[in-house]
Amino acid sequence: MYKGRDTFISKKISLALRHKPEAYGLELAKDGSVPVEKLLNGINSVHKFETPVTEEDVIRVMKNADKQRFAIEDGRIRALYGHTAIHVEYKPSEPPEILYHGTAHKFLDSIKKEGLLPMGREYVHMSADIDTAKKVGLRRDKNPVILKVDAKKAYKDGIKFYYISDKIWLADKVPPEYINFSSIGEFL
Ligand code: HQG
Fold first, then answer.
1. Could you read off the pLDDT of 86-100 as tens digits, one per residue?
2. Which end of the chain has fewer CB atoms surrounding its CB within 10 Å, N or C?
């Protein structure tokens, strides 16, 4: 679990690496990465911490996270998913039979018509486990809907899926015929 400072650091790294790199003086490479040093400089110049954020802080935040959001490689750090600032290309993977998507009741009519769309992001986000989907849904509805996606069938019909971790699978979109709406309420 995070303490207050670590939650703040995690949120600001997400902001910098997913949504507003320019606000931190950053330019994301094609894979979304920036030098760790530059991220630290950006965060420390925008947010005046009592003690500046260090690479050790970032590593601790990543280690204690409920899911893997960032990766550090060769001195560069990137967000693994969730971008709005750039379109990161991933290698498609074959998904499991079923993936889950947690959402709010108020979006259901629209999802029934249009399917799952990336909305503000670049991809639709799903998980292999129900618990993660429930947590995602709880961000938007205190009694969230958990939708079951026939991922394997969609994949076989040509919809592309991308594996990030068991807690995060991405897809370009999920048309309504691959969503099991009868599962609504089953997990509540
Ligand atoms: C909904 C966080 C109307 C969709 C989370 C969702 C996740 C539609 C919302 C990750 C729709 C978009 C992503 C349609 C989809 N009509 N509403 N056709 N299609 N929606 O935040 O999946 O903790 O962009 O159901 O935990 O909620 O930040 O996506 O409710 O893993 O690392 O539109 O972000 O990760 O919301 O969350 P979001 P999401 P972090």
1. 999 999 999 999 999
2. N
